[in-house]
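Readers outside the structure-tokenisation community will struggle with the description of the input data as it stands. I therefore recommend that a typical entry be quoted early in the introduction. An entry of this sort, consisting of the sequence and the corresponding backbone structure tokens, reads as follows:
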Amino acid sequence: MKAKFKSACISCGQLIKPGKEISKNNEGSWVHKHCVEDPDLP
């Protein structure tokens, strides 16, 4: 899904610009699509 509004990604802290691909994380918050797909690093 593409972002409609400017917001901040709670996963990485960077700006989510309108038109960028976003997805919901396990907690139900909208984050960058790549922030959901990346595995957690030890």
Summary: Helices lie at 33-37. The first strand starts at residue 7 and ends at 8. Residues 7-37 form one domain.
